Amino acid sequence: MRRLSCVFFLVAAGIAGEPEQLDKLLADLGSPDPHVREAATRALIDACDDRGGEGLRWLDTAAMVPDPEVRKRVGVVRRDLELRRKVRHLLDTFATLELPDARKEEFVRFETESRAGYGWAVPNKAVIDTSLRSLLVLHRQPYDFDAYCKEALKQSREERTDHAGNPYVLERLAFRNTLLSLWSWQRGHKRVAIEFLREANRALHRGKKFQPLSLFIRARVSRRMAARAVRAAIGGEPRTQLVKHWEAARDVKGPGFVANDFLRAYASLIEEDAKHKEPTPAERTAMPPDARARYWLYHLRDSRADASSLGPPTDPSRQLLALGWDAVPALIEYLQDTRPTRGATPAPDRLMRYGDVCAELVLRITGREFRSRGRAEDWWSDVEDAGVESYLIESLEESRLRLHAARALLQLDAAHAPRLVALAWAKDPRLLPVVAKHVKDDECERVAGLLKYKSRPAVLAVARVLWERFGDDRGLRQILAAYEKGGDDHLRSDCGEIEFLCASRAPAAIAGVVRFVERGPPGIRALFNFHAYRAVDARVLDALLLAMEDRASWAKVRGRGGRTCDRAALSVARMLRLKRLSLSNTVEDRDRELDRFAAWVRAHRDKLDWDALRR
Fold it and tell me: Most buried of the four, 30, 44, 85, 154, by CB within 10 Å?
């Protein structure tokens, strides 16, 4: 009776002309057999999905049937169709990322030097994993994608419960599930795709991210596209191509995105490029200092200076630093210039700006930090009134400016060297590295006598001159002895001492580094583990491998906690010049990755070219 009422209602509603298949499926929704109802629901979803808008209009009418069971099932069909529409919309959003095509690429299980995982095989022993990271791998083998999807759904439900209060994990889970939904859709597994999409929504809402999944994904995709544009800039792509990258990122996120700022900045740079005429080397040599500074400021747009260094010796930032005080007036003019260079920052979707690099150069040249152009101009006006040389001589009286002033005075006139050497002997041993070449060959003992100072920067400066000028390791030994005693002061800051100990590669320093890496006090040991890669020595490598086996030790250094074994592994990777080591979030997975990485290093230890690594 229920089946007849559904068909009668459709005919009465004027739907008798619809294909007979839909009429029969609708009637089956009211079947007393649950298996028939479930099969009819799945078939009706596919049939209406194939018909697009026509199928939705048919469902609108079908939803008015008098049978409540049929109306309930029609609602299920509509919700499923809506999810399928979202999957298609997300496919369009992800299209700009050039995702692996699940219909063409091979799904594999892989192993790198540090971990195992799953992803899509690409040429040259590389994979793109399920978080869209490109990785070089040691081994990979085919893996059943359907089986992985079953495991991933189960894992997703467990992680969603275990990490209910961790937004970072839940957002990562939502992004991964969305990707798996798209790849399942490409493979024709629409029901699995819908289930992954539901899991992505649940993870997003559990993480208190009360926004539609589509907006969350658009934001994620736009950030990845912004990061891709930044990598392209760092890689040296032409600015006209960078504009295309940022336009694509803007189109994904919409108005108000940071891409608009980059597009305006690149438009300005491209306009300047069109007007610029490159001088010949002879013309550049004949330029006065101010014109030379402005020449290098023009080329600062291609600078590799990043948040921690000024780039290679030929970098425009290095050339400006070499100009010293002659470049300061021009640098001040650019302090608030927000146009991008090609330097990296800790944020993956940001670049160093003109103003960032200029502020760093002003700090390195003058010892003064400015972010406001107005304050810098007022200060420079006072310096010009007094005269640069007079200002620098006065600055020798200020401890915080003394080193910068000494370097600048020597650059202006080497005749200032005796005054500076006398100041180093009498008042401030920190000046010794600046005037090291003016210290006489027979003054080693006099230099060693300055180790009596209690100031750690002063002792470091004396130790540096003793080792680099005279080959004397007394300063190195004194620094090591101070670290043996430990103390909170050494934990708060190492003043560059550990970097110097490791980079000196003196026998006493290497022995000390090995000792601290293996069994130093917790906080001190963590610092040595972090910096030990600079030593580039087989004995230090062995000590780090031994530290990687210590899974129990944990230390908090400068507000950040971490395990000894993790810090040691990162140091090994940097010493061997491997790509950045990526470790899993869970302790169990991380320990397995450390074991595999340590085994790989031991297997290749005897083949390492230490001379090449030291260069």
Answer: 44
